[in-house]
Structure formats: C-alpha cells, structure tokens
Design a protein that fits this description.
single chain, 92 residues, alpha+beta, 4-stranded antiparallel β-sheet, globular
Length: 92
C-alpha cells in the first residue's frame, strides 16, 4: 500500500498533469486520463463524473490506500501521455 506521503505526491502529480480547468478534470475518453481520474477518486482527491473528475475542495485520504504498483502504473501512463517519459533504444 502507498504511504500517506506517497499518496499525496501521486495525487499532486496527477492533478498537475491531467487536462482540465477550474477544478474539473477532463479524461476525453483517453486511457491515461481515465485512469488518472479513477486514481484521484481512490485517493480521496476527486469525485468521478461522466466526463472526468471534479476535484474535492478538501481532499481526504481513505483509510485503505491503493497499492503502490497500481499508482505507479497510472503515473507512468500519464507521464507517457504527456511526453514526460520516453523509452529509447540504447544506441539512440
């Protein structure tokens, strides 16, 4: 399971890197953004909507936090979607 500090860091990263404005995140039916919205809900930072997620004014971490490997998959997916993570051939 994530620690509270890790959960906060993951949530802050996802909020900063998921498209949207004025506290509403848009997933645009793109997998990385959808996973981000779902993760933010699981972390107590948002409420899912049909088009994405609505950020909560006062986030509250749940009693049971998500598994670290699930959170890592979401963070890596968002990083790949935003161009923040790239794999390259060793000879490149």
């Amino acid at each position: 399971m994530l620690t509270p500090d890790q959960a906060t860091a993951v949530a802050e990263y996802l909020v900063a890197n998921t498209p949207g404005a004025s506290g509403e995140l848009e997933h645009s039916h793109i997998s990385a953004w959808q996973m981000s919205c779902e993760a933010l809900e699981a972390l107590g930072y948002a409420t899912e909507t049909a088009r994405g997620a609505l950020l909560r004014p006062t986030p509250a971490l749940p009693a049971v936090l998500p598994k670290w490997d699930d959170a890592a998959c979401v963070v890596l997916s968002v990083a790949a979607q935003t161009g923040g993570s790239r794999l390259r051939h060793p000879r490149s």
